[in-house]
Each structure stands twice: as C-alpha cells, then as structure tokens.
Amino acid sequence: MQKPLFVSTALLLASPLFAYQDAPKYYDNVAPILRDKCEICHRENDVAPFALPDYDTAVTYSPDIQRVVSTGKMPPWKPVAGHGDFKGSFALTEDERKLILAWVEAGTPAGDEGKKLPPLENKSEWSLGYPDRVLSMLQSYEPPVGQDVYRCFVIPTDFDQTRYVKAIDYLPGDRGIVHHVLLYADTQGIGDKLDAEDPEPGYSCFGGPGIDIGLSTLKSLLGGWAPGQRAHLLPDDLGIEIPKGAKLIMQVHYFPASRTAPDQTRIGLYLHESKPKNTMFMVPVLNQSFEIPPGDAAHQVNETFPPAGLSTLFDVLHLLEPTKIATVYPHMHLLGTQIKVDITDRRGEVITPLIYIDQWDFKWQGSYDYIEPQLLKSGNRVRLSCTYNNSESNIYNPNNPLIPVRWGEKTTDEMCLVFMGVYSSALENAIGGLIN
Ligand code: HEC
To answer: What does the alpha-carbon distance between residue 100 and residue 18 come to, in Å, rounded to a whole number?
Structure first.
C-alpha cells in the first residue's frame, strides 16, 4: 500500500511544475540568508572577490554558489556544528544550505520583488563606538601583488601603567587585501629586534611573531580578527592585560589579491578604568616533539592538558574553582587537515567538545569566543588532536620533495597548538606570581 504513494510523491517532487511552485524563491527565502551569511564579506570594498547585492548577481554566480555551498567551502566558518557554540557564527544551518541548493536546482526563481531587502548600510567604522585608544601601524605597507604575505608590525603604546581591555576592534586599512590580523603584546623587545633586521616596514613572520611559547605567552596573545568577525565586549569583571611598557605586535596576513595598495591597519582598544576582578590568560596546549613522516596522509599528533606532572595540582585548584574557558584559537600550518579539542574525564571519555575543524585551512584561522564559558573542573583534562597530510595529495604541501616535518615557525614547519583564553581567580593566584 505504501509503495504506490511513495512513487507518486517522488514523481510529483521531480516534476517541473512542483519545482516552480514550491521551490524557494530569491526575494522570499534566499536573499535574507545571503544577507546574513554571505554579504558580511561579499559586499563592496570587502574581502570577497565579488559582491552579492541583488537578484541578477546571485543568478550570475548561481553555479558557483551551488558548488561552494554543496562542498562547504563557503561560507568559510570552520568549526563543525555540535562542537562548541560560538559568538558571531556565520555558518549556514542545514536547512539554509538545502534551501540555497534547492533554489539553484529549481532554476533560480525570483519570487515576490515586493519583499526586496533595503540596500546594505555602509559599515560604521567602529562597531562598538569610538574606542578609548586608536593605534595604527607606524608606516603603511604595500604587499606584492598575488602573493600570500605574513608580516609583523611593531606598534608602541603610551600607557604609563598596566591597562586592561574589554574589547579590541580592528580596522583593516584595505579590506580587499587584509585577510587576517593577530595581535600580541611584547615585553621583551623581540619585535623591535626582528624589525631592525628587515629593511622593509615590519618583518616577515608566518607561524607567529617570534615570541617563544612558554610562560611569557600566557599574556602575550591579545586577540585577532578575520573577515566577518565582529568585536565583542568581555564581561565587566574580565580584562585582557597590556603590561606597562609593552609594545604591540600586529601580524597581518595579506592575501594574494589581483591588486595591491598601501595598507595601514588600525586597532581600537576599549579600556577598563581599573583592574577588573579577572584577567584572561592564553594557555597554550601544544605538542612540540612530533615528526610527520613523508608520505603519511593521516598522521595524528595528540596532547593533553594539564601535563602529567601538573594534573594533581590542577585537580586541587579546580576543586576551589573551575577554570572558565572563554575563547579558543586552534593553530596548525599547511599540512594540517583536522584539529579537535575536547574536555575529557581522566580516562579520556569526552565530556564537552570544545571545537572541531574538519577541513582545516591555514588561510581561515581565527579565535572563537564561546557564547557561555566552558568549565574545566577537577578531574577534567583537555585533549588536543591534530591530523596532518604530509603526502603529495595535499595541494598545500610546501615541501617538494617530501621531507619529515617537525615543530617550527617557518612555512615549511608545522605546529600542533591551541590557545585557550581562560580565567579563574584561583588560577590567577596560583600562577600570577610566576609571570608578573
Ligand atoms: C568571511 C567572509 C566570507 C563569507 C561570510 C562568505 N564568503 Fe564567499 N568568499 C570569500 C573570499 C575571501 C573569497 C575568495 C577567496 C576564496 O575563494 O577562498 C570567496 C569566494 C567565494 C566564491 C568563489 C570561490 C570559488 O571557488 O569559485 C563563491 C561562489 C562564494 N564565495 C560564495 C559565497 C556564498 C554563497 C556565501 C554565503 C553562503 C559566502 N561566499 C560567504 C569570503 C567570504
């Protein structure tokens, strides 16, 4: 009895009449999705190569839209759903994805033009209002055309005491060429030294600004920006520390656009008036002692935090107060294919998935802020897993011929690293003395 019904429904679904009547329409269904999930970058003077402002353009690009939406290449929101709820996500929901694909398949019907969206407003410069301090690259820099360039610029601060920020916003000088920005505080003069050795403005830096990862890093990574990302204010009792006398190092990735222009990217700092109750620490979880054999297309490297020797100490600390994880920033280089971070119990059973990126792309890295902080409790561990493809099938493999690859900052080296932005008064008391 069921079968004939099924067949007729299938026939009906496949018929052009059905497709025309019930298929999603541009003005009614598709345009609002493109507005929220695509036009944050696909607009005039932004990072994407074309704008998607109206029906005609959407139709022109519809074969490409179909391809990139079905493969998941676009939008470039990397974390897999179900592994952490992040602020400002521009991922497509499964329904939105299906809807866009059904619209293309149905022949891109326009629908009710009366529902046309108003044109996009021009972006106001600073989304959180004018910052307390605006700092800028000292000189402009013009990257060469058609190349990936990672450059670090040293920016002095004029603070006569340690300050705490609630938010940092970034204004790329030229949104068509600036692909992402990471900001560090340097208290050791490392940036000035490297800058002095490089004749052009700033210095070349791929895997990081040259600051050693260790205790000194706990407060050195301040934040980052990638296209589509908006600044968020931290809660009133939480701040990011900029130590007295520190200089800022801004790492800018210029991506291979077909044109160039002088860029002078600015940052806006929103300051706490006084020291807030908690300071955010960037705890690196990393494995520096791996070797990825040439030819291995799925090599895995793992790491656990806290390290074995410190786990009892952290378990006691976490009885007093769980550590709150506010943000994560996963990092690998060009061989990386997947990165996964979980909170587990002592035996390794997953308690809370923190983040999972299943199609790692070095060009689309960033930090992700949790909507609600994640708790690291007594007995909990953080497990990091990095997967690499060091074979010829990896089109981004920088080594030809293939070689064994280890930890390092160069393009041809690798990293297995996640920074966790954490806070807790107990933790601060325990390690504060060590790093101040
Ligand atoms: C965060 C910024 C951003 C968002 C959001 C975004 N794009 Fe893109 N898009 C880019 C950039 C940058 C490129 C060019 C570089 C590249 O292809 O990676 C691009 C390229 C494309 C291309 C051409 C790439 C190709 O392989 O042909 C298409 C088509 C596209 N985007 C469609 C979309 C659609 C549809 C959405 C929304 C569902 C979207 N994009 C959301 C930044 C974005």
So the answer is: 17
Report the separation in Å between the CA atom of 65 and the middle of ligand 1, taken as the mean of its atom positions: 8
Distance CA 132, CA 270 (A): 5
Token pair listed for 217: 């890093």
Our mutation pick for probing the ligand 1 site, out of 74, 89, 174, 178, counting the most ligand atoms within 8 A of Cβ, is 74
Per-residue pLDDT band for 1 (boundaries 50, 70, 90) equals: very low
- Res 311 pLDDT > 50: yes
Q: What letters, b where the CB count within 10 A reaches 16 and e where it falls short, cover 231-257?
A: bbebeeebbbbbbeebbbbbbbbbbeb
State in Å: Cα 372 to ligand 1 middle. Answer: 29
Please choose, from the candidates 301, 300, 307, 308, the residue with its C-alpha nearest in 3D space to the C-alpha of residue 287.
Answer: 301
pLDDT per position as a tens digit, 246-256: 999 999 999 87
Q: How far is CA 144 from the centre of its chain?
A: 24
Cα 39 to ligand 1 centre (Å): 9
